[in-house]
What we know:
Blueprint: H1 7-16, H2 27-39, H3 43-49, H4 56-63, H5 68-89, E1 94-104, E2 114-117, E3 123-136, E4 141-150, H6 161-175, E5 181-184, H7 191-199, E6 203-208, E7 213-216, E8 223-224, H8 225-234, E9 240-245, E10 260-271, E11 277-284, E12 294-298, H9 305-314, H10 317-328, H11 338-358, H12 371-392, H13 397-405, H14 422-425
Parallel strand pairs: 1-5, 5-6
Antiparallel strand pairs: 1-3, 2-3, 3-4, 6-12, 7-8, 7-10, 9-10, 10-11, 11-12
Amino acid sequence: MNFNAVQELIKLKKIYISTQEGRGVNCSDLTALLTTALFKTNLSETVKLAPWTRSESSIARSAQNINIDAMMTKHQRRILSKLKKSMEEDPARFMYIVDDTPNEKDGKLLKKCGRHCSHKNKMYRGQRIIMLCIYDKKTGKNYPIAYDYCLNKDDAEHVKSTDLMIKLLQRALDMGFSPTTCVTDSWFNSSEIVMKVRDMGFKFCGEFKLNRTVKIEGNDRWLNLKKASAELMKQKITKKKIVTSKAKPRNKRGKIKREKFIYIQEFEGKVKKCGVTLKFILVFKHSNSKKPEAIYATTDLTLDGAHIWKAGRERWNIESTFRDLKQNLFFGRLSLQGQVGADLAICLPMVLYSSLQMDAFWGEFPENYTLGQKIESIRKRELIKSTEFIKKNPKSLKIDLYLNRNSRIKRKPVNQAISQCLGKVMHAA
């Protein structure tokens, strides 16, 4: 229930409405779409619970005129203006993270949908979205800056996911972002990607699977990483000990958090069909472990093993971003048809996610608050405001409009009884 538009969303709308000049996009409709994203509802529920909005059909028609490219360009420029000075002073503080995420959905009118295979080797129908984020190591904040769709091979517009990744990185360079380390998982570490990323000025860092064929420096044989790790074990190379978490004092329940360690082995080598020398690390849980838990590699030969391992672990921040976008916002779930509807379902949550992290007009939150807790506190605040509005204005036309829209159970909300009052209730949200 939201009897007045959220003031922070009005400020955010004013930033982006300038990108839609001359396209017939209503200001209040853009605020309504942002409200739908923030409260994680569908468009029909937003119209029912927010009497200041226009009708569902009017918002849907206006949304089809939104220029997604202009909105994303504005979004990227805002993030660049926030980070550019820090990137120039300390480029190593930032890293790019690339990953894909499934968006399961079905329907004949939905765009960019098809049958895909998930990372768990399960088939699903929906969208496969690849996203590029920039991560600030100092503040721990992750900013999504670009996205694209991975289509099936049968689709006429099919582009390989490796080419899409390079396209996203090139888009970031064209916007003015500085090339730093680019971190990926084992799905985006082909020889082609490693060479292209290096040629663009980035430092590649990624996780590798045990079946990748490599040639260890000083050895003429090509071996997969599983056999190569066994060869290194025979040489009895000393494993380096790295502290992953420090010990903490005894808490109230008498428990002590002990120090945690990992052990790594470093070596240099080349991957098959890749002319670039990489620095590999094998990660072990125990000093006497025979099989590595993970394998990471980078084109930056000056990095030590601890930094390579840390970069590989920091890649998980994009997984946290996907979780927050899906659980707390309506990522991929906007009830609008067509290509614009599919793009808005991804673009608007990205805009809100970044705004909550870098815009001061949202107010101050406790330092330990997650994004979900911030959004939940905003929702509770707006519910309290709506309750106070009803108490102070029991005869308001907005209340009549709210009751009228909610009187049609499981049907489209309309303004049948008080259509003559709409001109007085609607205002530029």
